[in-house]
Design brief:
By secondary structure, the chain is of the alpha+beta class. It is about 20% helix and about 25% strand. The protein has seven helices and 23 strands. It is globular, with a radius of gyration of 21 Å.
Amino acid sequence: MAINIFRPRIENHRRIIVVSDVFGNYDTLRRLLDKVGYSREDYLFVLGNITERGPQGLATLRFLMETGKNRRVFALAGDYDMVSKEVFRADRNAELLQYVLRNHSVIRDMCAEIGIPLTPQSNMHQIKLVLREAFSEELGYLSELPHVIEIPGFVFAHAQILPGDPEEMTPGDVIKAEGFLNKGFSFDRYVVVGHYPNQRYPEAKRCANPIINRARHIICIDGGMTKLRDGQLNALVIPSLDSDQFTYAFVDDFPKKIAQNSQDAGMERHLIQYPDNRVKVLNTTGDMCYCRQEKTERNFWIPKVFIRQTENGTVTEDYTDYQLKVTFEDELSVILETSRGALVKRDGVTGWYYGLLQ
């Protein structure tokens, strides 16, 4: 399959708003666009993973399609956007049915809209035929998404760009790759990607905010929305083609509370992240488990809801024991309140707060 590169004509003086990995979070996307003051004068770039995982995949897709009719909206393909292409296949019907039954999916949204019940006995082959006709416009939009967008000074992809000419790359090269920033690449123009949550690039703290590496001309913008418990949706703002004075904004869906105490940042922080997330539960007290990380043999108090059993043993969700710096009357996004404190976010950084909340 040949790579599809789109090169739109861009007016130099207009802002470019860049988001990625929306995952069907339509309401969150609208709040984010309102926050950055998105207008018909701006360009909107969406770096893939428009649907799937989140609750409003079809609404998100239609919003981009409708907005793009009278505004400058350019989207590209993410790895999860490939799910919609299964509707055009004659095979893998059982696999697609199992996926749709287990997950939020734009295919499930389409079935619900036209009253097709989904059960383990559903005939996915017949459902595909109906969906192709009823949602030809939506499915066509997703199937025709480019893999790369190039404009002067910038190249956009879902997961990564390799050194060299993008024309010589494959869709697989750019759609799905883990840890792009860790691969040591540098470029002579800015490469902007999503796909890999920024929380998993922790240099000092677990932070979901966009990472702007000016020395290497790489910008990573995936805030882990829906994928991670502490996720947020980020927007990178490029003021114009001839300016690198980038800014960003983010929104999350957590309840907001006001800190009633101040606390200093912890002197140390430790992380548990996939794939090094196997643990041994040593003790359980109420809503917390005292665990030992297998790789480091370091002990942690971890919320019980983070722990699950898998075929490979006991694992935890991504976790940090960092004590967050908090000032009295700070507004905090509250991820989880526990008997040993609250896991919160402040300015995109995740950590623990041990004071009172109001």
